[in-house]
From TrEMBL:
Family as reported in the entry's similarity comment: Belongs to the PEP-utilizing enzyme family.
Matches recorded under NCBIfam families: PTS_I_fam
Gene Ontology MF term list: kinase activity; metal ion binding; phosphoenolpyruvate-protein phosphotransferase activity
Catalytic residue positions: 187, 501
Record domain Phosphotransferase system enzyme I N-terminal: where: 3-124
Binding site for Mg(2+): 430, 454
Keywords: Coiled coil, Cytoplasm, Kinase, Magnesium, Metal-binding, Phosphotransferase system, Sugar transport, Transferase, Transport
Keyword Translocase: no
Listed EC numbers: 2.7.3.9
InterPro entries, A to Z: PEP-util_enz_mobile_dom (IPR008279), PEP-utilizing_PTS_enzyme (IPR050499), PEP_util_AS (IPR018274), PEP_util_C (IPR000121), PEP_util_CS (IPR023151), Phosphohistidine_dom_sf (IPR036637), PTS_EI (IPR024692), PTS_EI-like (IPR006318)
Domain PEP-utilising enzyme mobile: 151-223
Protein name: Phosphoenolpyruvate-protein phosphotransferase
Lineage summary: Bacteria, Bacillati, Bacillota, Clostridia, Lachnospirales
Length: 573
């Protein structure tokens, strides 16, 4: 058995198809006719654009708009005049061949994105290398492996999968994916989950162990892979596969059911989204609202700021679609770790502790923050929008943002423009500072939403993208759990809603603890909503108090997590 990282749930049993892409050898060559070489590059660029656009359209039709946006991001990169301009300059000024110019320019950008340490930027680095290879293959006349043509019952085995390769997979034929590289948050893993294909990534030495035609079994939850296993293992995993498929079907009975515990405690199970199109999945899985709409994605992968009107239409679309259910929209959370040339952001030495989020927005009131707040207020006339301010560390930041909202309300009143008069303005609690003075914030803000990803990172002083210290990154750490419990207690004392939009909100092992602490709202990926509702409905919060008390008595993250895992599996303390 080989161990990797589970990237997409489910059990896959099938025949290995090893996909090995031709290794490109890029040499620096001097060209005599730069103009002819420029035309050669432009031809390859246009072909790559056409192919990527066709792939994005196909993915949008088969899977959904949200998933197609990954490839639409590739189209944006290929259309970026800054990128193509630098490649053209290298051809003209250095008289080098197109393949080499593409190699050097794209690698520079990819290395820059990688160095930022942020997961989103690392995905963009992967995207940049993907488009680089696509253009070079066109120039070299090398055909990519046609993944769409794999036979039924295939387990796709590869060193790594680029987003464009994953997008071409036919889920009716591919029953599993195993790669030697990659991570759970990579675009390829996201696409595998969207296509509902079981996947295991980061299996060391995989390519040396598997050959075409081998029988492979994989568990996308446990991150386990078996090559040519015994008949007993095959039968065991076939049973597991049937159980998984039945459980998935059984979850459908929770559509339309209120999220209420056995002792009558009602909570809201809502969704995190990044684009207006994501709302379709929220409705499909019966989400009770939107707990986090990340607005920064409206600002990325474009060459100019989105206008107030564009933002208004995006927010209005989500608010109207949710038909009165709460829609929490986070104001722009962006900083020096994001590559957005038109914003003129200088690269921060330490972007996670620097000029970002509310700090940046309050400094750029006129051109960025006010148009966004005005768009949010106008859109609130079409639904139940709530405004959330990110990365708040002191009460002055919240007061200044709230004062801007009040100023814009008066402006809209004077113009006779409708908006939700009692619109709520809350904060994302994601810093140690905000947690420590949660009692002060709770007296002034309208709601809390706990961002566990950053709260854990800041509490533990750990960059979660740094593999050397990632062992310290755990929401089960007693320091983080005490912080979460304190934040919830402060909110409950003042009678304000307290939600959670970090990954912990949908973690089956964490949910009993959060219910015991008194969390009101759980926000997660739409696909996790029904599974979470089933769990919520199975618990009695009075019984969970003893569980929480015992969990909080442990000294290490490992002890807490192990105890909670055993409780969830056995259902008893």
């Amino acid at each position: 058995m080989y161990k990797g990282t589970g990237a997409s749930s489910g059990i896959g049993l099938g025949t290995a198809v090893v996909v090995e892409e031709a290794e490109l050898v890029i040499r620096k060559e001097t060209v005599a006719n730069q103009e002819a070489e420029l035309e050669r590059f432009k031809g390859a660029l246009e072909q790559s654009l056409r192919e990527t656009e066709a792939l994005a359209e196909d993915l949008a039709t088969r899977v959904g708009e949200k998933e197609a946006e990954i490839l639409q991001g590739h189209v944006m990169l290929l259309s970026d005049p800054m990128l193509t301009g630098e490649i053209e300059s290298a051809i003209k000024n250095e008289a080098v061949n197109s393949e080499y110019a593409i190699e050097t320019v794209c690698n520079t950008y990819a290395d820059l994105f990688d160095s930022m340490g942020d997961e989103l930027m690392q995905q963009r680095a992967t995207d940049m290398r993907d488009i680089k290879t696509r253009m070079q293959k066109v120039l070299l006349g090398i055909q990519s492996v046609d993944i769409a043509a794999l036979p039924a019952g295939s387990i796709l085995v590869a060193k790594d999968l680029t987003p464009s390769m994953t997008a071409g997979i036919n889920p009716e034929h591919v029953v599993g994916i195993v790669t030697e590289l990659g991570g759970r948050t990579s675009h390829s893993a996201i696409l595998a989950r969207a296509l509902e294909i079981p996947a295991v990534v980061a299996v060391n030495g995989l390519m040396e162990q598997v050959q075409n035609g081998d029988f492979v079994v994989l568990d996308g939850d446990a991150g386990e892979v078996y090559v040519n296993p015994s008949q007993d293992v095959k039968e065991e995993y076939e049973k597991k596969r049937q159980v998984f498929l039945q459980e998935k079907k059984d979850l459908e009975q929770y559509i339309g059911i209120p999220s209420v515990t056995k002792d009558g405690v009602q909570v809201e199970i809502v969704a995190n989204i990044g684009k207006p199109e994501d709302v379709d999945k929220v409705l499909q899985y019966d989400g009770e609202g939107v707990g986090l709409f990340r607005t920064e994605f409206l600002f990325m992968d474009r060459t100019a700021m989105p206008t107030e009107e564009e933002q208004f239409e995006a927010y209005k679309k989500v608010a109207a679609a949710m038909n009165g259910k709460p829609v929490i929209i986070r104001t722009l959370d962006i900083g020096g770790d994001k590559e957005i040339p038109y914003m003129g952001l200088e690269k921060d030495e330490n972007p996670f502790l620097g000029y970002r989020a509310i700090r940046f927005c309050l400094d750029r009131k006129e051109d960025i923050y006010k148009p966004q707040l005005r768009a949010l207020l106008r859109a609130s006339a079409f639904g139940n929008i709530r405004i959330m301010v990110p990365l708040v560390t002191c009460i002055e930041e919240y007061r200044e943002a709230k004062a801007l909202v009040e100023e814009l309300k008066k402006e809209l009143d004077e113009k006779g423009i409708a908006y939700k008069k009692d619109i709520q303005v809350g904060i994302m609690v994601e810093t140690a500072a905000a947690s420590l003075i949660a009692d002060i914030f709770a007296k002034e803000v309208d709601f809390f939403s706990i961002g566990t990803n950053d709260l854990t990172q800041y509490t533990m002083s750990v960059d979660r993208g740094n593999k050397k210290v990632s062992y310290l990154y755990s929401t089960f750490n007693p320091a983080v759990l005490r912080s979460i419990r304190h934040i919830i207690a402060c909110a409950r004392e003042q009678g304000i809603m307290v939600g959670m939009c970090g990954e912990a909100a949908s973690d089956p092992v964490m949910i009993p603890l959060l219910l015991a602490f008194g969390l009101n709202e759980f926000s997660m990926s739409a696909s996790a909503i029904l599974r979470t509702r089933k769990m919520v409905c199975s618990y009695d919060t009075r019984e969970l108090q003893k569980v929480a008390e015992k969990a909080m008595s442990f000294a290490t993250a490992g002890e807490v997590e192990q105890y909670m895992k055993e409780f969830v599996e056995k259902g008893t303390v």
